[in-house]
Amino acid sequence: MQPPARNALARAQRSAVHLELRDSYMLDDPEFIAWQQGKRLDPADRASWWGGWHDSVSDATARGVAVRRVRIASEPISDYIRYEYDLTFANVLAGEQVRWLPRRQTTGLLLPANDFWVFDNETVLFHHFTGDGQLAEDGREYVSDPALAKLVGEAFESVWQRAIPHEQYKP
User: Fold this and answer.
1) How far is CA 96 from CA 17, 64, 121, in A?
2) Which one of 62, 101, 143, 154 has the lowest number of neighbouring Cβ atoms within 10 Å?
3) CATH code linked to domain 4-23+47-165
């Protein structure tokens, strides 16, 4: 079964935006553990890192869907955020536009408490995590409410305007 965000991205026609708010996620992820032990992806060896998510993003952007992601990060950044930073080249090569916003620069922004995706300004996928960064058992919540999609979409846009493009962000 495909992850829910991938399913929604496959149906998106215009836009998919994602806001990440945490400094760590699923610290028991084998790929993160391998990264901590020194494993690094080789951008030149695409076959070793390109996967289903990259195909989904590439397919969506080929259809004209704008796929954008912002990661809000405390600085100095955590090991997990450094791991994400190191892997972000793959998101970019797949067609995502990725930006970073230091948490100190969020003052004055009104943000939802949960990570989310908004697809075509209509459907929101909220992610609910436990205190230790695990996706909660009921951790995915789809909401088809245009008013809510507009509200969180506007929050995303306010972050996007302040955020630093991946190519320029130097943690």
Assistant:
1) 10, 12, 17
2) 62
3) 3.30.870.10
